[in-house]
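Troubleshooting: if your tokenizer reports a length mismatch, compare against these two reference records.
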Amino acid sequence: MIRTQIQLLNEQINWLKKFALENNISMSQVIRDSIDAYRVHAERKRELTAKKEKALSAVGSFATEDRD
């Protein structure tokens, strides 16, 4: 593990301390878990955006014959 420093707002640190205490885990663990959860969210969002762009690029690419 690599040690790092971050700056937090008072509201953030207060919530972090309370949450860690209530769940009997360290503040560091809460931060690591939060980063993991955000990473999953960001990767899923990126995948969905790519699928959306692919779908939108297909719109209108298939011509139909009007046989009226």
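Reference record two:
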Amino acid sequence: MRKKPVTLISGYLGAGKTTLLNYLLNQAQETRLAVVVNDLGAVNVDARLLRGKSRQDFQNPVLELTNGCICCDLKEDFIQDIRTLAMDDSVDAIVVEASGVSSPMSIADGFEEEGEEFPAYLDSVVAVADGNRIASEFLEELEQYQTSYETEEEDVINLVMEQIEFSNIILLNKCDLLTSKELEQVESIIKILSPEAELIKTTNSEVPLHKIFNRRLYDYDRLHGACALNKALADGEHDHDYGIKSFVYEREEGFEEARFYDWIENHYPREIIRAKGYIRFFDRPEETILFEQAGNSVAITPVPSVEDSEQGSQIVFIGKQLEEEKLKESLNACIRQ
């Protein structure tokens, strides 16, 4: 049996994912698409919208997964639904709208775990990015630089960046709401963070079907290694366009927690655009801490044990005109002596 292609659409709440799905369904006259919609709420509003606007000549099957996320607690149900749809002869292809707070990398992991015998394959990972929101909540924060740290489970701008970084195609949506200068700035940031992704500028999520379907762009290893953060981890110091530079800070000794938080609050370099990595605190050596920063949003979150758990801190920094030695010195000053 022919394996069925799956197009995964990610993007934060309000970015335009459902608008994109409606547009694709109305344009895909010759392709019989099945749709999987994930929503965290008990009532899946997106699925109802799709049912109401689908073409009448072919009833697109719409499966709803609610009260959870397909990247974690609903992963098994999601994979089983994909298996069922892939074995349906009336379905040509499957399109998945992930919830706004889903991690596309974790969803892709589910496909990887199924192996070669699975009747479906990921064709491409599409991120719908709200250009207006990025301009107002990311670029503006870089200019104003009022850094604060968060400890909530979900941190919006870091999640938006992750969705952009792990994608084959990025639809930069709501371009009509941006000035030409803002559009240029947003494009440059996206190209830095995800240099190998195909960037398509859209209004109302309107995009030619051939740009989305049957692309065969997905490759887990290549996609995982393509984003600027992972490139820096693999290659060390690296120069990008637009005067952007990245490097990896590594240290075996643990940070003094109070000093580290003071550094974030009072001394965090405004030149840093994006940072991500694992850190260790001296007083909690057994605990792994995920450190993420995008714009002025910083998240510090305890996570389950990771590989190389005996190692110390490792953080990737990406920024404009970074003073690497000065940054290293300021971080070293946070180490417990």
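Descriptive notes for reference record two:
- Residues 54-58, 142-154 have pLDDT under 50 and may be disordered.
- The longest helix spans residues 131-144.
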